[in-house]
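Support request, priority: normal
Reporter: lab tech (M.K.)
Component: structure prediction queue

Hi team, I submitted a job for DUF1080 domain-containing protein from Spongiivirga citrea yesterday, and the status page still shows it as pending. I've pasted the exact input below so you can check whether something in the sequence is tripping the parser. The sequence length should be 220 residues. Please let me know if I need to resubmit or if it's stuck on your end.
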Amino acid sequence: MMYKSGQFLILVFLMVLESNALMAQTINIGTKQNEKKIRAVNRTINIDKTDKEAIVFNAQEGDGLGVLEDQSFKHGTLTLSIKGENKPGRSFVGFAFNIQNDSVYEAIYFRPFNFVAKEPVRKSHMVQYIYHPEFTWRKLREERTDEFENEIMNPPNPEEWFKTMIKIEENHVTVFVNDSKEPSLKVKRLTKTKSDKVGLWTGFNSAGKFKDLEFITIKK
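Reply from support: The job had stalled in the queue. We restarted it manually and it finished. Here are the results:
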């Protein structure tokens, strides 16, 4: 296993230590799919044949969403296990939040094929924030270079499961990978409009696998 769940839980606890209470909700994504509570947008979603708690997105043109129909989440911390592929330009996998409709949302996503990159320019493109459709990765890279994407220190194997922790605040998003205590990315959000709809995300021509979703919210 490429990550240590105990260290992840410690990190989550330290991040919210100043709060009065934690509320954790574990989501079995496979069960959600069985119950038809994940709405597929531009993808076919199936339960993984080798892991009934995981789901699989097929690869096809355009971005894809798996909207969690009965789930609300606006601010807090989430953890999620993701598996992409070492296919240059064909593996973009992540999590969408503030979903206002099927084409307007924020997302954090990863490019697993860059986890093994040697060139500095590709190494800096491992993890990305976007706000579609206004702020695509291309627009952000051209106009605000290196502000919304970054390198992951000690990156995972691109063909294996890895775990991410994403802290979503009113104005900022912070991303951790595996057992790292240092964030891989911290950005200022590019919209003031907020929705509590969330989902799983894959990019152009990308398949992806997801499991082990947990939401941790703060009760003041």
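The domain at 5-218 is CATH 2.60.120.560 (Jelly Rolls). Residues 1 and 61 are 31 Å apart (CA to CA). Let us know if anything else looks off. Ticket resolved.
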